[in-house]
Amino acid sequence: MSNTTELTQHEGKKGLHEQLMRLLQVDWERIKTKPGIEKQAAMITNVIVKANRFFSSITLDVVCEKSKQVIVRMFDDEQKIVKMFSWYLIRGTNITTVEEVSLLSAGTYYLDILDHEGSSLFQTKLVKE
Question: DSSP code of 79?
């Protein structure tokens, strides 16, 4: 294998790693220092999080202007991701239920929706009782 090919592969892996790190850590400090503030980008026009004081599940009701692949993350105060999944939003209303949160400890959690470029489309604080 030539040095050029090895360099290109290394750069590709580095770019993928940087993108993953951006998706996992985008806006953490802003969310943590300003809890309770929700942000909506033009693409997402409305988000309803049902069961904000949740026990076993959370329902997300998202209305958006165009179809787009997004990533939904849920993490704790220590920045540990406890739930993450990819979701294809279609134009209009999208509803999903986040299950398997009954095993989480009581406390404060943060949920955000990101596009694949790492831009935050929505964020909120959640409380588990």
Answer: -
